[in-house]
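Lecture notes, structural biology module. Today: joint structure prediction for complexes of three components.
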Amino acid sequence: MVAAMNWLAQVIAVTSFGIRTLPERRGAAAAAAFGIAGVVAVMVSVLSIAHGVNQTMDKSVSSRNAMVLRSGSDTEMTSGFSNDTAKIVAEAPGIARNEFGPLASPELFVVIDLIKSSSNSDANVPLRGIAQAAYEVRENFQIVEGRKFEWGRNEVIVGSAASREFSGLDVGKSILVGSEPWNIVGVFSTGGGVAEGEIWTDASVLQPAFRRGNFYQSVIVRLNSEDSFTEFKDSLTADPRVNVKVIRESEYYAGQTAILTAVITGLGSLIAVIMGLGAVFGALNTMYATVSARTREIATLRALGFKTSPVLISILMESLLLALIGGTLGGALAYFAFDGFEAATLNWSSFSQIAFSFRVSGSLLIQGIAFAALIGILGGLFPAIRAARLPVATALREL
Amino acid sequence: MKYFSVIWSSLKRKKTRSILTILSILVAFILYGYLSAIRLGFDAGVEVSGVDRLVMQHKVSLIQFLPESYEARIEQVQGVDSAVHGTWFGGIYQKPMNFFSQFPVKVEEYLDMYPEYVISDEHKKAWLETRNGAIAGRTIAERFGWKVGDRIPIQATIWTRKDGNPTWEFNLVGIYDGVDKSTDTTQFFFRYDYFQEARSFGSGNVGWYWIRVDNPDNAAEIAKEVDQLFANSPAETKTQPEAAFMQGFAKQIGDIGFIMTAILGAVFFTILLVAGNSMAQAVRERIQEIAVLKALGFTHTAVLAMVLAESLLLACLGGFAGLAIAWTMITTMGDPTNGSLPVFFLPVKDVVIGVLLAVLTGLAAGILPAIRAQKLQIADGLRR
Amino acid sequence: MADANGNLVEVTGVDKVFHRGSEDIHVLGGLCLKIPEGEFLALMGPSGSGKSTLLNLLAGLDRPTEGSVTISGERIDQLSERRLAGWRARHVGLVFQFYNLMPTLNAARNVELPLLLTHLSRTERKKHVEVALSVVGLNHRHGHYPRQLSGGEQQRVGIARAIVTDPTLLLCDEPTGDLDRKSSDEILDLLQALNQDQGKTIIMVTHDNDAAKRASRIVHMNKGKLTTDAAA
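The predicted structure, tokenised, for the full assembly:
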């Protein structure tokens, strides 16, 4: 016990010597810390894109919702079936009902060319035709400006993210669908999620405008409960009159961005690892310099009877400290620059824009700082070993 | 060059430090090479598009169809050499992650429109003779290990078949190569007549048109003229140069160029710190030697040049090696997204920029320490 | 290239002023000194007497605040920094107390350093280096690095570096200050030989009476002034 306390006292003493002399080596120390800050900032920023996309997807889903597509299609964009099919789906068991009937919204999903504000270039903005039940199916729907569109008229409401990301989507203005202008009468929110990047209108006026006939691309249904899914799915799968695919909303949206998030996460990690390697070299440089600057001091301490391990640990601690400062700095930089940063990108599978916000979450920050710590430990390890192995006699004679 | 051995020997003074610095620069340049290739992959369409080609799509969006009958009308416009249509098939091979593009096209007209796709006469003949024949680009064929004669099943997502079969089966009759490495060889083409006959809906509709003009200088006017031709029709059109079309497409994803530049900015900032710090240390511990050099008759400028040269040497050793490794990795290992990028190579232009970047890194990292060495007074340096 | 009176070096009324705070410190008080060609001069005096400052002025490493320094008929105190560097390369060979060899260069490369400032070809440089190393008797160690050499050997490399350009003047700052008796004697033998056999003009700052005795003239300094001047 006494030995352990003594050892700890040694560690603290040697470490504090080192840290007190840090200001003398501020150039090298700052280079290492800022280098690590750069790595963490890039890593956290890139990963916050994937994080933001995933979060948007998560907010889009309700565990009580299911989607029906034509069998074989993966997205609403490529799906398609007749009104008859939509009717059969709406009558399937397991769907919740209200006074007007089943909570099933047969929908149309197309894109129109609008201008993205940030790049001033064309973007495929999703335009969704909905039915009455749509408002009940989306739990958090609310109008934040203006009013809902009137059924049967050439009116649209736009999601709040869409109205920010794309130009010309303000209440009172109009968009060109086909050859006619359609009025924008309201802005809606769904409490986050993909829908906020969409434009909504009455499916029955959208059908002729896009010459789709009496045709839908998906039916979105609200189930009695989460557990009704199997009942609902099985009944439709077994029904010979329809050829559809039934999936949970969560599964659908996870699939929508699987490629996108995989690419971003993959690239982000690759970049972080390569940059991290560079930062390890930088940290090693700094810590070797530290060891050689402290050679005499370390040798003196050793000559006075300090043990090897406190010396080793003190170098590691110093490196770790620099790394943590750098990591925190980088994380903070990423947080202030990008958290909540709004953007839109092309969703490959549905060929349409999805609006989302970068999300620098706590767990991402922790990941970044943990990565910084790893860099610090790797960067301090070999120099620490060198310091510990320093032959005391020769080191004392040195400069 | 007689100073080279002196400069070289200074790098050997602290071998560990020099090696670590070189390695960190090397790593930065590997990243630079990789990101350059990735950016090119996203932008590829723009680089490979033909100056004499236009793309005509439905005015509302690309997903709206155009009638097949437009082709003849476009070709009557003065200055139009030929027009051929394309349609997005969007099928899935085995699993959704195996993404690549498939188009039904008219064989001869299409190959004529895209001379950069090189295919042997034998394969072309086979394609003309095989109704469900298809050709694939070299990259995509290698990715999935396809050989001529293979049957390629592709699951429909949009284009269901009349016969209700969810899968389209194609007979791979040929593989095309690119005229150079900037050609997209990740695409898959099959015959339009087969498509037209077997699809369950949309008969007579196509996705868009490629239009070749006689003289690229008139492209803008012709685009306008073609659009006027279909104005006020049920399917109005929007025609633009292929490069603009492709660029618009790339921009839909986001400003890739900006993102890459921002990342590289952070990378080089980091590297500059590492290398600059390393050079500063090198000069700091050498004050006395620098004073001795000056005492021996080396001028201030000569000393400045020697420190800069040392820094340049570090940066160029790391930078060139990094570029070489990046080039080798890109060439041999290929696309990190596993084939999602239409082209993936390190263009000469980016190598040249990389070389310049290495030189700049060296100068920037060395300049402050070099000035310090230049300003050093001999008496002060010797007194230490 | 001595003047009409046979003097290679002529120092007239030099002073060097250093500023310390608001105080001006005059290190040399209007000092005058003439050194004929072919002389081996020992400059002695306590620390702070100004002997190193004087040596720096003679070497063109520093400029006087007042007075003139003429060497081989050239007013080196009036040369620009750039020309002064060139002048040093041609006319001065410097030997330091702590040798000041480049640790990263081997003996031959160290000796070659000043030759890099000349227009000599690679083979010519090599020849000069060989000659200089053989003069100091270290030909067999040309590939060794400073840390592989003893102090005496390092100083001999230092001397070889100083004479390789065949300078007008050899300036030695405590050349034996860091050496044991035996090595010191060897170095002093070498300097003496250079002076007597090759006619090199040598100015040596030293603390050591034994060393000073090897010179042909001894000059004592104190507080920036010459106190005694006597032939050894």
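Point to remember: Chain B touches chain A through 58 residues (CB under 8 Å).
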